[in-house]
Each structure stands twice: as C-alpha cells, then as structure tokens.
Amino acid sequence: MRITRSARSSTVAIAVLAIGALMTLTAGAAPQPAGCEPERFKIVLDVGHTVENQGATSARGVKEYVFNLRLAKEMESALKDAGFAQTHLFITHGATRAQLFTRPERANALGADLFVSIHHNDVQERYKSKWKYEGQTQSYSDTFSGHSLFVSRENARFSDSLDFGHLLGLELKARGLVYTRHHLEDVPGERRQLLDPEGGVYRYDRLVVLMHTKMPALLVETGIIVNRADELVLESPERRALFTSAMVAAVQTFCGTQQAKLSPRLTRSRK
C-alpha cells in the first residue's frame, strides 16, 4: 500500500522511530548471550491468517495478512542474520478453522523450541466509525493504540511462554513502544487478564495455536491497523525494524536461558 499525503502528520513520529531502529539494529549485532547456541535453536514464525481468510481489514482497506506476511518475512531474515539458521516461516492455506490446527501440528513435528504467531490487531465493532478513503467507505477506530502479547495457560510450557512474552515486552518498551490496554475493557470479547503489566502480556487460553503447541508459544498483535494513525506507522519500514530488532533481542536472551536449563541434563546424560 502506498503512503499518501495524509502520512505527513506522522513524519516526526516515524523519524523518532527511525533513530531508535538504527540504534537497536546496531545493538542486534552484539555477541549472543552466554549459553545461547543459535544454530541449535528452532524458531517457528507463524504468519497469522491465510490468503483465503485474510483477517482484519485496516482503516484504508488493506488486509491484515499483508501486514503479517511482510513483517514475519523481515523477522525471519533478521533472525537468520543473527545466527538462528533454524528459523522457519509458516505460511498456511485454507479458509476454515481446520487450518488453525495445522500450525501447532507442524511446529510439534518440527520439534521447535519457540513458536511465535504474528498478527495485527482489530477492535470490537462498537468502537468503529465510518470514513471515506480514496472513494471507498472503510471502518476505523482511533480510540486505541499499541501492541499486545498473548499466552495460554493451556500451553504445555505456559511458564516459559510467559517468560518469553515478558522479555519481548521489555524489549519493545525499551524502544519506546507501548502496549494497548483495550483488552481490559469490560465488553464482550475482551475482559482479558493482564498477566504481566510491565511487559503487556495478556492471558488468552483458548487460542488454538497456543493451546496445542508443545513448546513455548506467544501470539503477537503488532499494532492496531484500524487506527488510522497507527496504520501509517505500522506501514513504515522504521516501525517494522523496531519490532524486528526487539524480537531478535528477546529471542537471543530466551535462547540462552532455555539452553542453560538443558545443559545440566545434557551433562548428566553423558556420564
């Protein structure tokens, strides 16, 4: 999607993000944390939704899947550049609910160490209004802004999932990004429990991709694409670079802690 003249109002915000992106991408070249062997750490980046069922529609009529796929590909590239050669991009097909179960099945068969599902957020219909964009009537809501992270208590590795969510949340916070609090709203479809107020990690137990994965799993809503200002920022390479660098940093730390937990077992098994 092209950025029109209406994007000029966000020029200052994007410039700030660009500076932060340069700083964090430089930091991403730092040595791996002690205990992390990235070449042994298997990561699944799950592209939310499918070509046949593309998810939410942005304030300017762009489907969520477009945002998800683009960001996931950039994360894949950045993680591989950081040494995580076993980073797997999952692109799933299908229009029915069955495709949701395919994702954890593939991740479990792969023996992944971490599963991250990439999405962009919508809001409840009650918060939406109508506007005209390029001659088309679109829905939007400028009420809420920010990212959100979800874990499930039904996940076999819930504690580790929450740990990774906390790490990612802190990395995002360090880059000046703020999580949305609209999932706390007392309306049907929300009322989510905020498990980690510092990192912005919510509880969402019945998400299929989190329930059925056997490894630590996190669902990431990168931003709210029905927010007109947020959509333009999420469209920018600088904003994607910030989120990507936060993901790499969080994975590096998590890799170290996870492999450190395994080290004593490996040592004992060799005796």
Provide key terms for this protein.
seven-stranded mixed β-sheet, alpha/beta, disordered N terminus, disordered C terminus, 9 strands, Aminopeptidase, single chain, 7 helices, two-stranded antiparallel ribbon, 271 residues
Quickly name the level 1 CATH class: Alpha Beta
What string gives the helices and strands in order? Answer: HEHEHEEEEHEEHEHH
Give the low-pLDDT segments: 1-30, 266-271
Q: Report the biggest beta sheet as strand number plus sense, adding barrel if it closes.
A: 7 strands, mixed
**Shape type:** globular
- Percent of residues in beta strands: 15-25%
Arrangement of strands in the largest sheet: 2-1-3-9-6-8-7
Proportion of helical residues: 40-55%
Total individual domains: 1
At the fourth CATH level, what is the homologous superfamily? Zn-dependent exopeptidases
In CATH terms, what is the architecture? 3-Layer(aba) Sandwich
Total count of helical runs of at least 4 residues: 7
Please give the radius of gyration in angstroms.
18 Å
- Global mean pLDDT: 89
Distance between the termini: 58 Å
What is the CATH third-level topology name? Aminopeptidase
User: Which structural class fits the helix and strand makeup?
Assistant: alpha/beta
Would you report the number of β strands?
9
